[in-house]
Amino acid sequence: MVSMKQAEPVTAGASPVVELRDIHKSFGALEVLKGISFTAREGQVVSLIGSSGSGKSTLLRCINMLEVPDRGDVLIDGEAVALSGDGPARRIGDENQIRRIRSELGMVFQSFNLWAHMTVLGNVMEAPLVVQKRDRAEVEAEARAMLDKVGIGSKADAYPAQLSGGQQQRAAIARALCINPRVMLFDEPTSALDPELEVEVLRVIKLLADEGRTMILVTHDMDFARSVSDRVIFLHQGLIEEEGTPDEVFGATKSARLKQFLNAANHA
Amino acid sequence: MFEDLAFWVSYITNGKHLTWYASFQFTIYAALLGGALAVIFGLTGATLKNSRFAVLRLIGTIYSSIVRGVPDVLFFLFFPLAFEQAVEWFVATQVCTPESIAAQTSPWPPCREANWFLGTTEYLLLASVSLGLVYGAFATNVIHGAMRAVPAGQLEAARAYGMSASQVLWRVHIRQMWVYALPGLSNVWMLIVKATSLLSLLQIADIVLWADRLGAPNFLPTVGLVHDDWRWRYYLVLFLFYILVTWLSERAFEAIMRRAGRGILSEVPA
Ligand SMILES: Nc1ncnc2c1ncn2[C@@H]1O[C@H](COP(=O)(O)OP(=O)(O)O)[C@@H](O)[C@H]1O
Ligand SMILES: [Mg+2]
Fold first, then answer.
1. Which of A151, A188, A186 is closest to A171 using CA atoms?
2. Per its UniProt entry, which superkingdom is the organism in (chain B) (predicted)?
């Protein structure tokens, strides 16, 4: 099977947007990440795959410091995120820096995490207004455009609880888009959805990939990973077991563990 | 008959009755101010209990567990007196001279210059602070529980989008906390309303004190015995007042709940 990705393959020369260097993370005695490095370049879609509990979410959450890695560095657009202390005591070093960096990383969660007390439009406008401090009229116009883009323009004034799961996740994607992110971070965006609602969300993510947005995507959906990615990374027991283009990883699998994983995924 | 009516109208609008009616404002002020302070102390206590620092957590826990056990009557008597004497003691260290101390005849305050005369306004403020402190301990527990009911994922999303700790706290955490806290806070509010009947303990001429005085057998030189012991009639008016306040409070809490719960409480999927 050939890659279905339509955009030009992103050259290795494009500038790095997210760079992880030797990331380690433990929860108590459980060592979840054992030294992971990779780079997502401008315009690339990088998919993280691996069995449940292999540390995909933890790795993604290290990028915006929802989890602080015990060791290793995170660089966004070449700028290292300041951290202080060592090991489990390691903390965010500079609150202002991390807030600025976070305001450029659009995260989409498995369980949507829309703010329940705000309308859909309010959710999308919140960070641009209170974090980025942009002009309200401009933000509202852009927010409405983003909602149209993900196909829920008519739901702007509804509350999240009034929407279906697929609509909520698309609202969450619009929320991420409206901050004009340098990179979109998706953590299994369709895992909480019924199969018939999955399609509408995948279609939106595909659209964003084709626009050439930089994205890091944790997914269980191997067909989708294959169709949308420039690079695929397979995590196993806290390490990168195999990585490469979708054709390499899915078409010419080297690792026995990955073969086993893909077999299991195909029969799921 | 008409003359009777005219008499009773003028009787219930005489000076003492008008003072009684006016004294309802003390009860209302004390409840409103006490309620506002209870929420402020409750928010503070809950924030302390959630603090990263063990010392602050301990203070919050001690406040909410100890003060909840103190009878409100006792605290009402203790706090204003202790506060008054503490202020007088402090003022005394500043203003008393050896001569003025020698000239003082009563055992307290140390000198006459340090005496602090408390009028109705001062007592009302102290009463409100007492109410706020006692019921703030209940509010601390209610709010602390409600804070934990707010979905963690939404707080995390707020952080992930670059909100500062105080933005997360006020724009998401506390904003959503009200929905879970309001049922408990409405109970605390009703307790505060009931406790306002203790104002006369602080020498405030409040509605209870006046009902007592006006209900006692009344003899006017011009008309003879107006009524004998009518206290139960006057107390009945207080009952009706408190029932009205309860009813109004319930309506108000329903309205606040509807507003605070928008989007959170049972929305019909569109
Ligand atoms: N906050 C946490 N505290 C303790 N253990 C955690 C925490 N987050 C994740 N873990 C553990 O780390 C491991 C990896 O989790 P996760 O990154 O969510 O895996 P994945 O997303 O690949 O399924 C799991 O065993 C999980 O139980
Ligand atoms: Mg996960």
1. A151
2. Bacteria
Pairing outcome for strands A231-236 and A215-218: unpaired
Residue showing tokens 């699998």: A253
Helix axes of A165-177 and A195-210: crossing angle, nearest 10 degrees: 20
pTM for the model stands at 0.89
Radius of gyration of chain A (CA): 18
Q: 10 Å Cβ neighbour count for A219?
A: 23
Q: At what angle do helices B72-95 and B120-149 cross, to 10 degrees?
A: 120
**Domain map (residue ranges) of chain B:** 2-206
Q: Helices B15-49 and B120-149, interaxial angle, to 10°? A: 40
Q: Does A123 touch chain B (CB under 8 A)?
A: no
Checking if the pLDDT of B269 tops 70, the result is no
Give ipTM to 2 decimals. Answer: 0.92
How many Cβ atoms sit within 10 Å of the Cβ of residue B191?
14
CA A207, CA A184: separation in Å to the nearest integer? 13
Helix (H, G, I), strand (E, B) or coil at A2: coil
Question: Of ligand 1's atoms, which has the minimum distance to the CA of residue A55?
Answer: 17
Strand partners, A242: A234
DSSP letters for A171-182? HHHHHHHTT--S
The topology under which CATH files domain B2-206 is MetI-like fold (1.10.3720)
Cβ contact B131:B38 at 8 Å:
yes
Please give all residues whose CB falls under 5 A of ion ligand 2, grouped by chain where several chains appear. A 57
Q: How far apart are the first and last CA of chain B?
A: 65
B262 Cβ under 8 Å from any chain A Cβ = yes
* DSSP element (H, E) containing B164: none
Place of tokens 């990615």: A229
Q: Share the mean pLDDT of chain B.
A: 90
- With a 6 Å cutoff on the Cβ, whether A72 touches ligand 1 is no
* pLDDT at A124 (0 to 100): 98
Query: What is the Cα–Cα distance from B107 to B105, expressed in whole angstroms?
Result: 7
- A37 phi/psi in degrees, rounded to 5: -130, 135
